[in-house]
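Need a sequence for this fold. Nothing fancy.
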């Protein structure tokens, strides 16, 4: 887990190593254990290192293999790197380190860009071929590791974070109006390739991009699981009980894979079903003294701020070395400002602050944790899934938008100023195109495919990466193991919807977890002081929305902002999020980025 950056020029000039150095320095928190720069003619690469596998300097990056004519930078972890190394050794390759980065380099030499199909893990990488000048960028199947890109006629730059690209300079920081529409409508999700800034794009998940020396590019999407019952013929005709066993078996494998490290691995234990299953399966594997971590906040607005009763129950059951992290409200305001600074893109979810504070504390104990993100999207655990059961495919987009979108397209005319409006309902059109694509048996299958490949990538997964990496903490997500996702995609929807959602997962957990955990109400990372804005939090948002920068930008209708500020907790989106926080967070983020 690290931060990578680089530049390739198309105008005959040498790469700007100074700009790549600034980009690399901007990612110090992602990789506090080391840094490196390398350049050759039109290409420069930069890297910040977090030492997880092969702690020696032999694994330093950028990694150059002169014999193979390759130079590479890599962010993430290949969980099957040992198996791949043995396969490559059998084919005559010799290794100078025990790192997964070197495995990636030699796998690329052996199989070319198709090597991604052999990788099990989370990854973003750039590989330069010396003899052709070709640069290849790749991103893992579920977009767990980020890759941001900025391009003009003269050069292409890339980095693990958007702020790093800004540090390099020369980026168009105008607001992307289509991305803004998504942000205000599609529950703050901005799908790849767009970001809120016109000059920055994201490499989509499951994509390999080839950049030739003359600037010609080509993208290849290498993974798109079908959400059909026929996708995995070997599972056809399974009983419900057999599905429970199949899911549990795949999850066991996913959790086991994510213990690969040369440093200790802990678990973020919320006390919910997902993180509790990870702890239970690690205990089943024989893990003893496992470090687990839970966070809690003070109550506000009549809402509890912790779930310690549940996490304590799981920790006691499995004998973990458990760390309760209670957070006093006095720490929230500075943490909120730091969390905004750590965001590569604006992220509305209040649990960003929770993850940020949790990561700060956890990083004092371990460098790697497993986390339960992704289970709700993969196994249909959210409230908007049951209304889609039995809905005709042609009606799915309307039902989904009614349940999930923050507001309809026409409402933006009273929120955004005319310069920032778009004529078309671009978010609705995006969802309709996605749901109409072949490869999904039912409306619910199509929505789960959308959420798994889009919403999951550009909300919870991005949130966890940004907040944990702000403290050099690597988060691993077994529920996003691609083989488990493929199995879940083929699982009958009625099994996923059972028991109020995640039914197949709940049944798989019985016998492993106490009934109080399996059958508990759905939880989350509660941060009541952010959900119910008052006091210094309200003043922070008020200053952001009414100050000179906001007035100069002229993004939001003044009358709309005044209504929100007059009643900060009354205006809610479809799913109950605070509407004031949504607009305030965007201004806070833009101002933090200096745009």
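Here you go.
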């Amino acid at each position: 887990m690290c931060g990578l950056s680089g530049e390739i020029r198309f105008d005959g000039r040498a790469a700007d190593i100074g700009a790549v150095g600034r980009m690399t320095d901007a990612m110090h928190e992602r990789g506090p254990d080391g840094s490196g720069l390398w350049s050759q003619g039109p290409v420069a690469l930069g890297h910040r290192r977090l030492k997880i596998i092969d702690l020696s300097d032999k694994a330093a990056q950028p990694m150059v293999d002169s014999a193979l004519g390759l130079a590479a930078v890599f962010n993430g972890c290949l969980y099957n790197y040992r198996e791949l190394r043995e396969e490559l050794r059998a084919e005559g390759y010799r290794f100078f380190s025990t790192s997964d980065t070197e495995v990636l380099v030699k796998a690329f030499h052996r199989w070319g860009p198709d090597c991604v199909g052999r990788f099990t893990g989370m990854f973003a990488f750039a590989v330069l071929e010396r003899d052709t000048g070709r640069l290849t960028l790749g991103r893992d199947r579920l977009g767990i590791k980020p890759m941001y890109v900025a391009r003009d006629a003269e050069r292409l730059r890339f980095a693990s974070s958007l702020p790093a690209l800004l540090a390099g300079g020369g980026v168009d920081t105008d607001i992307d109006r289509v991305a803004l529409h998504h942000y205000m409508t599609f529950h703050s999700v901005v799908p790849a390739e767009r970001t809120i800034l016109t000059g920055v794009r994201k490499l989509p998940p499951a994509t390999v991009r080839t950049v030739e020396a003359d600037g010609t590019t080509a993208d290849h999407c290498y993974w798109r699981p079908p959400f059909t019952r026929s996708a995995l013929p070997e599972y056809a005709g399974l009983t419900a009980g057999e599905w429970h066993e199949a899911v549990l078996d795949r999850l066991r494998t996913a959790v086991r894979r994510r213990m690969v490290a040369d440093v200790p691995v802990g678990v973020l234990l919320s006390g919910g079903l997902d993180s509790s299953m990870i702890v239970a399966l690690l205990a089943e594997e024989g893990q003893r003294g496992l470090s687990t971590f839970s966070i809690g906040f003070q109550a506000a607005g009549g809402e509890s701020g912790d779930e310690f009763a549940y996490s304590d129950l799981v920790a006691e059951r499995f004998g973990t070395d458990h760390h309760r992290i209670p957070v006093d409200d006095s720490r929230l305001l500075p943490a909120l400002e730091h969390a905004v600074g750590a965001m590569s893109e604006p992220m509305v979810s209040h649990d960003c602050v929770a993850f940020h504070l949790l990561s700060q504390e956890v990083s004092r104990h371990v460098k790697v944790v497993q986390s339960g993100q992704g289970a709700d999207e993969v196994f249909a655990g959210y409230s908007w899934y049951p209304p889609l059961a039995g809905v005709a495919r042609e009606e799915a987009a309307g039902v989904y938008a009614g349940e999930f979108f923050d507001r309809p397209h026409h409402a933006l005319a009273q929120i955004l100023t005319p310069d920032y409006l778009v004529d078309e309902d671009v978010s609705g059109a995006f969802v309709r195109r996605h749901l109409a694509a072949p490869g999904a048996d039912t409306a619910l299958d199509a929505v789960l495919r959308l959420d798994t490949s889009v919403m999951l990538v550009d909300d919870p997964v991005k949130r966890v990466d940004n907040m944990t990496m702000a403290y050099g903490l690597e988060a691993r997500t077994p529920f996003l193991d691609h083989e488990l996702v493929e199995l879940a995609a083929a699982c009958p929807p009625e099994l996923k919807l059972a028991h109020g959602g995640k039914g197949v997962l709940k049944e798989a957990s019985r016998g492993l977890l106490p009934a109080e955990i399996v059958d508990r109400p759905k939880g989350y990372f509660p941060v009541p002081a952010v959900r119910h804005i008052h006091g210094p939090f309200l003043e922070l948002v008020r200053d952001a929305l009414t100050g000179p920068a906001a007035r100069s930008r002229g993004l939001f209708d003044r009358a709309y902002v005044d209504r929100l500020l007059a009643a900060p907790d009354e205006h809610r989106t479809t799913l109950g999020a605070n509407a004031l926080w949504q607009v305030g967070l965007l201004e806070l983020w833009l101002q933090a980025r200096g745009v």
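For context: The two ends are 28 Å apart (CA to CA).
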